[in-house]
Amino acid sequence: MEINFAKQTIKSFVEDLNSTKPMPGGGSAAAICGAMAAALAGMSAHMTAGKKKFADAETKMQEIITATNVLQQEMLGMAQEDADMYSLVLQAYKLPKNTEEETGHRKQAIEDASKAAVVASLKVTNASVRIMKLAYAVVVAGNPMMVTDGAASALMARACQRVASYNVRINLGGISDTVFKEKAEQEMQRQLTEGKQMEEAVLKEVEKRM
């Protein structure tokens, strides 16, 4: 990709989404949403750290700040990776299939590109869970004035995860390797279940503090 999404203005990125360009798409938008989710959990920690009232949570908040900085960078990278993977899949489907040899080559290219895309999307679903866990931590132990930001972090991370899971499912359609498919589906379901549980846990804690 010639455009680095992480360096685009918000306006430019949104305009590229609403255009005839094939990338960025839903997966990249979801990962950007995930980066913002991580940043919101980090903001809540920043607004807690260094305050005498929350001295007991200082070490935890500093750990969260560090973790969210890492996760937001990972998510920005995943936004780029999603577009790169989509490009690979598109290229594979555009390969010629006029001869038996070309057909076989095209089929293998689709298989390889689809597998790479699935792996990339599973990284997003996994990172989303990690963000939700941090959102839970800041809601429970952080500044109570920031609980709605913790809620926003969890909700956005969960939305990001669900979008990525759809990308996993659609790319599994181009894969014939049953062992790979089964493992990917199991991992996706495990992460979705954990993500749903974490979202519910965060929102329950938020409601208690409203």
Please give the structural blueprint.
Layout: H1 10-17, H2 26-46, H3 58-93, H4 100-141, H5 147-172, H6 178-209
Characterize the structure shown:
The chain has one domain (24-209): Up-down Bundle (Four Helix Bundle (Hemerythrin (Met), subunit A)), CATH 1.20.120. It contains 6 helices and no strands. It has helices spanning 10-17, 26-46, 58-93, 100-141, 147-172, 178-209. The radius of gyration is 19 Å and the shape is elongated. The mean pLDDT is 95.
In short:
The chain is mainly α and 210 residues long. It is built from 6 helices and no strands.
Task: Describe the main β-sheet briefly.
Answer: none
CATH class: Mainly Alpha
| CATH fold-level name | Four Helix Bundle (Hemerythrin (Met), subunit A)
Global structural class: mainly alpha
Radius of gyration: 19 Å
Overall mean pLDDT stands at 95
Key structural traits:
210 residues; mainly alpha; 6 helices; 79% helix
